[in-house]
Amino acid sequence: MKGRDRGVANYDWVSKFPAATVRHLHCHSSDHRPISLVFNPNNESQRWFRKPFCFEEIWLSDNGCSDMVNCIKSISVSIRASEDLLIWPQTPDGSYTVRSAYRMLAMASHNAQLGTSNLNTSKKLWSGIWKLQVPSKVRHFMWRASGEALPTRSNLRYRHVLVDGTCNLCEDHPEDAMHCLWMYDYVKCIWLSDPTFNFPRAKCFNNFCDLVLFVLSEATSSTAALFAMVAWCIWVRPNKLREGQQVWDVSDTIQRAWDL
Ligand SMILES: [Zn+2]
């Protein structure tokens, strides 16, 4: 299904443009349908006026509303007269932080990809990656790699940017995070050059997320941090090369990760 953009408006805005509506336009070459904001669809802007929500007393005696009324009555209210407060549920002290909002959104998109049954896996992964003693750009990279959110060929194909998601170096495998960062022959040589990373080699992993979870649970925190740094170096090296920047020799990748 094509991605549908949506419009969001607050009550003040809606009361100024009561008949405004959002229409989805057709398009063929993007995975998004553009939206068009129509202020006055049938010249009927004054025909109705949306009332802000308020609770009507009559609902208390209406049987159809009994569930909702009982639910509201069950909320215990403080006996002291105090102002209502806005509470942000994503932090222990209820105050909003950008970091907690970022975390909430990142978790939501990750869970959408993994499916809700894997919520615990996702939480474990998030807290493990967040604890890594590495620069935050590397943590973000690890999070995106684990959720198959890197611009690999496989992912670009999934998003209809490319027709073919096969790795164009070996022309043999789909180029997903697992292939780019762990399985591809030349990448494998990098990992094998340091015996520290022999321990996950005996195991088979379905995807990069499983590999990261394994490393987070089995390795010491310094090995896990080095793992993340090496993966990051493997990921950025080809991009740096493409941009004509100076890069380290492939065989020095692990040393490079140590140095960073
Ligand atoms: Zn390949």
TrEMBL record:
Q: Sorted alphabetically, which Pfam families does this protein's record hold? A: zf-RVT (PF13966)
InterPro entries named in the record: RVT-Znf
Origin, by domain of life? Eukaryota
Q: Where is the Reverse transcriptase zinc-binding domain?
A: 96-191
| PANTHER family attached to this UniProt entry | BNAC02G09200D PROTEIN, ENDONUCLEASE_EXONUCLEASE_PHOSPHATASE DOMAIN-CONTAINING PROTEIN
Protein's name in the database: Ribonuclease h protein
Protein species of origin: Quercus suber
